[in-house]
Amino acid sequence: MMKFNQFGVIDRTDDERIAELMAIKMLAENERQLAPKTLFERFVRRALPEYPTIGTQNDWLRAHLADKASENALAFFSNDTPVTRQIVYNVVVELFDLQEAFIRADYDGYQVLRAVNLPAKQPEAVLTTHDLMVLWYDILTWHTPVGLQFIDVLASRGYFPQDNHYRQFNGKTLPTFATNDLIRETVYVESAVDTDDDGLGDLVRVDVIRPHTSERVPVLFTASPYYQGLNIAANDALLHDVNVPLTRKAPNQVTYDEIAYERVPFEAGKRSVQGKVDKAVQTFTKEQSLPVDISNYFLSRGFAVAYSAGIGTKDADGFQDTGSPEQVESMKNVVEWLAGNRVAFTDQTSRMAVTANWSNQRIAMTGKSYLGTLATAVATTGVAGLETVIAEAAISDWYQYYRDNGLVIAPGGFPGEDMDVLAELVYTPMQQPAIWRQKQASWRAFQANTAKNMDRTTGNYSNYWDARNYLKWVQDIKIDMVAVHGLNDWNVKPRQVYRLWQALQAQGGHHKLFLHQGQHIYINNNRSLDFADQMNLWLTHKLLQVDNDAIATVPTITWQDNRLPETWHVLQAWGGGQAETMALSPQPMLVSYVDGLSDELYQKYTTDFSRWRSDMLLPTAQALEHTRARWLMAPLTETRRLNGEVILHLQMTSSENVGLVSAMLVDYGDAKHLKQTPSATGEKIDRGVNFAPVPLMEFTLDNVSSHKMITIGHLNLQNRTSAWQNDDLLPNEWVEVSFGLQPTLYEVAAGHQLGLLLYGTDFEMTIRGNQKIAYQIDLAQSSIELPWEE
Amino acid sequence: MMKFNQFGVIDRTDDERIAELMAIKMLAENERQLAPKTLFERFVRRALPEYPTIGTQNDWLRAHLADKASENALAFFSNDTPVTRQIVYNVVVELFDLQEAFIRADYDGYQVLRAVNLPAKQPEAVLTTHDLMVLWYDILTWHTPVGLQFIDVLASRGYFPQDNHYRQFNGKTLPTFATNDLIRETVYVESAVDTDDDGLGDLVRVDVIRPHTSERVPVLFTASPYYQGLNIAANDALLHDVNVPLTRKAPNQVTYDEIAYERVPFEAGKRSVQGKVDKAVQTFTKEQSLPVDISNYFLSRGFAVAYSAGIGTKDADGFQDTGSPEQVESMKNVVEWLAGNRVAFTDQTSRMAVTANWSNQRIAMTGKSYLGTLATAVATTGVAGLETVIAEAAISDWYQYYRDNGLVIAPGGFPGEDMDVLAELVYTPMQQPAIWRQKQASWRAFQANTAKNMDRTTGNYSNYWDARNYLKWVQDIKIDMVAVHGLNDWNVKPRQVYRLWQALQAQGGHHKLFLHQGQHIYINNNRSLDFADQMNLWLTHKLLQVDNDAIATVPTITWQDNRLPETWHVLQAWGGGQAETMALSPQPMLVSYVDGLSDELYQKYTTDFSRWRSDMLLPTAQALEHTRARWLMAPLTETRRLNGEVILHLQMTSSENVGLVSAMLVDYGDAKHLKQTPSATGEKIDRGVNFAPVPLMEFTLDNVSSHKMITIGHLNLQNRTSAWQNDDLLPNEWVEVSFGLQPTLYEVAAGHQLGLLLYGTDFEMTIRGNQKIAYQIDLAQSSIELPWEE
């Protein structure tokens, strides 16, 4: 049975509840004195928007049941049986389309509601009119099997007129804006950067979708370099070879100050404005125009949606190399136009200016991955008009995405990708033949420069990477952020959000964090969590300035249980607690392993790195056994939760003057774990009234497995001091290294054992030169810090 | 590179072309005298509907290329270079969004168009104004990578006003009906059947979606018992055990006349009409309301769409058992209402009548599988108003679906399903608690009766099955039918359409057949074939009565090549040719095999019948080797095509007094075959203007395989004479059996070998009692008829 977890319902007094029922015309002033049964009948009939006549409503009532004593609901309304909670619940489960469960439960709606985790209570209680009004209000806020609150279900079924005016219920904005008559317009914002060196600010294309309304509307802006398309073939052609050896770096002494990047304001030449128009002229029709589901949800609720791919993409000027200050500035400039603080033109040449005169100048940025990354980056500029950011699976530091601790480290699943490859993927002027013929040579030169700067040879942190580390400027974030991340996201790894979160927490504010058990996915179409409702509450407050307790209501941290399906908990903190440090061995003990495989095995794993990882995670790794050391803790006597960073301190040697160490923390013990990709439930969520349906998804349990990787980390043995300095390393010299694995929040079940795998090459993430390097670890001199919760 | 195959383009004279260009406002009367280059510039600018101003159009022209001699298309339009076909082609590939291929081809649009199989010619030719008009007309009919003709792409990008009036181009209706303002209404048709025995015709619910227009509109009606939902759990609970032995049938003498079903007209009691209204009152909003993609395509083109689940479903009266005369009648009655010949009411009780006063009374029925089946069945009633049927993967004879030659045979993939199971799946009153409480007992009695009638014990054909064999009434089909079927559809197997097709061909008319290489799928979203265009031409003729050469243009038979991807051929006939008969051995030769497996293997294959089939198809079947006889033909010296039915004549014995024989014809030889399920191309097809997008699909080649099953067949050795008579069978007695395998149309490559596998239990399709029965076949006395094409 499905299970709902709602955190976005705000508490209302009974009087407020009744007033809200009247405001949405569910209740008339003069109905407050009606007998409970008469009022209940009116409520039910009003919950049938497709049945506008008494006759059609009666058909529905005849087919459904109020209680087992009456032949059907229509008969119930003509007999003397009083209205109990049980009876209301019975009708509600039928309105919620839970008939099958209702019949299976021998027509007991209370039992069905409890089974789906809805707060049904005391079924026998006979209701007064007052009780009924309060109860009906609450029911309207309950979640249903189609992924929406019941009031939103009624809205999507036609309860409200689509009159393009704002309405709220329980603090959340309702879908009362017509999505069948949207305005789609394109403008060209003059940015503050001049990356093509023509003396003028690079123009960037912005596509806006907004309702036809006389109200000034807020804007959800998604900065997506992917928005104008992808160059898949060019991307693949540029992938770097990862089957290369780790090479020695000449030892040096470098301080952070020597490589630190300083921000400087951008100021490009401005075009002279030739005139002003009230409305944009260019439009767009491509399917790609509404890629982000959560944007559709808000579009029907009166929020405009804007997309820009930024500089260095189709219909924009300039060049960009992934996350650069110039790219971020161009996205910030879009916010400035939306907030009335920058010029945009109707096309690329006429210099006719157009203002966002329809905007209420309050903007949120949203999006996953690269999109959320740029939202975070723009937040660090402190730009006026940006009121909040919802950043999902976002990068906060590009070094951590393509590098780590002095190593070239691929995002999980993407060996060979790098800053230049990602820039190539989105350099969509490549799809504009005349432009491409002109720009091809300069783009190649630009890319060559990027390749040099990103430096795959040393893998070190540098001024280039420092410019793309937004954590440096967290103190300039003046708004409340919402962060969403998967604890099994090995593409954008959890440290990306962890460090941002720690920094935000340190400086105060009312930030919110959602940690789910998925990989690199969106959760806004998840069935068991009311994520969209919570974001509605949040943006209704932040962008429409409605006083709705959003800040106090949305939990600071919502964590998805890693053992129980469809279960979400409210937590107070992620990390920051006291860790338990334990030596890896109580008595002297050396372990060793050799990195290097037969040609055959090496070929096999280079072409199938997922197979390598699953083989490596097995309790006995067979042909891989010699390539790893495995440390096992005693079985847990009680279930405990890891919360934060696991840190390793290792005393070790390499047989060469180069070396790396990789580590996976593993949960050993037979169990069903949640799949990292949610499954389709078969239902679709309506994002308005018959608008932009998306599949409703839920995390389900996988088959029993003997193990589950909890977290992972990597380090270059020449980067023991820092990511920017090369330490010396001599063959067989004992060195001490400390490094953190990716932060986690993970419950280990009683009886399970924690294990640590130490090894060299990671076929999915590191370079893989198949060098035969022998490593030794002195376990007694090595330790692990485990952030167990008390 | 993708490849287009267009058969839906009609030939026009130059004058007609020019007149049509003017009718769609692509050309003005006074522009016919313009210089070619001036006119070409106008055409290109008109092909940019999102760019309404000269300034925005110039931006586009600056980004694209006309020829390599000019910096960009805008520069080209200001210089003296004449317009050649090459230049038109260059711009066209950019308008078609084939930029990547264009750049890869060093800016040669001609080469790109030829590569995608579009009829580009003589690139060097300098064009006159007349040439240009003719060429531009043709280009508007060409297919593009988004699965639409270019004119439809322009329409979906806003070229035409959505003014709810009909427009045709090249004989096909354009999407000029507003899909953002559709009428959705529900009525209750009073059918002519009274299956719940209440003295009144069963009401059936009909949902209509139609454009807001003053034109009378035709209707696409889909009869879908699935439309009101599915009872998955109840379906699964009712599945029959297939792990049961084959039992002996007492020999008898039965003639067809003894079991023949005779149709009788239905006439149920009629409700008194209490009044009449102009418009329906009830509406509907569920996502399920637009399930069929092709319906969406036509909705934007001014065709109404109607759905009904028929009797024995939610919001309808009565009971039905899969394909019954009563179910068919109730669907026929819906056509009668749409054609103005039957009463419908606004709800189930008020008796207020409502007419389809918006209908032009010309109806087509469409749908796949059960839906297409009912469309075919209704066609055999000859009902007035039904003008054509598009039946995809449809059943023509239910006996052939759940039985065959005296055996219980499951549709591929669905062991244990049967007539009662399918009825249970769609008995959606089960989801209406009050109704279910009242009807549960009668439904169980009805189902018990069905179970008795369908008779899983003998598997024989009977009066019950004869009533559900629509092939009996093909002579009553007075309309032209379109049939679509997958030659790898082992769910609804190819004989279903073959027999219908043979019967239709025998009686004349202008029927059309599409045979693809997929399994049980729709092809309307396939990239390489212009199926939707052809259906547009067809229905524009049949339902809007436009004289557009549809009958002559749509090929009689379109066959997808089974060896070359994205290749479709026009054929004249399927089957009916002369077959080559060959003995299975030139000299005396007995082969034998024993049906029966170890418990372990038996368990394995009962839980994974796909594994059984793939093991069985291997050249050496290992643990299954003793369960089969394999006959191999000499390798083919040239590529040859099988076209029709393969028929086996076997002289054989069973070691028991029961027995069955199964046969698979196999193509042995290493080759890449097409996957039976098309793959997503990544593009979506717009079904109007930003309406109901669906993924664009294409068949792709699978990995190399050593074998491919071509066709299959099964027979009960006690049904040598007919499916309705039990023949005697004595242990080890030689008997002669003849039976056809499923019809095929399959090209066997030179060097490949045809093979025949003869065996007993088919783990996917027959019952599987694991009886140890030994079979012998006398190959010299056995033969195979192979329908090779000359």
UniProtKB/TrEMBL annotation, chains A, B:
Any single GO BP term: proteolysis
Top-tier EC class: hydrolase
Entry-linked InterPro entries: AB_hydrolase_fold (IPR029058), Galactose-bd-like_sf (IPR008979), Pept_S15_Xpro (IPR008252), PepX_N_dom (IPR015251), PepX_N_dom_sf (IPR036313), Xaa-Pro-like_dom (IPR000383), Xaa-Pro_dipept_C (IPR013736)
EC numbers for this chain: 3.4.14.11
GO molecular function (one): aminopeptidase activity
Keywords: Aminopeptidase, Hydrolase, Protease, Serine protease
Catalytically driven reaction(s): Hydrolyzes Xaa-Pro-|- bonds to release unblocked, N-terminal dipeptides from substrates including Ala-Pro-|-p-nitroanilide and (sequentially) Tyr-Pro-|-Phe-Pro-|-Gly-Pro-|-Ile
Subunit description: Homodimer.
Sequence similarity: Belongs to the peptidase S15 family.
The protein's role, per its UniProt record: Removes N-terminal dipeptides sequentially from polypeptides having unsubstituted N-termini provided that the penultimate residue is proline.
Protein name, per record: Xaa-Pro dipeptidyl-peptidase
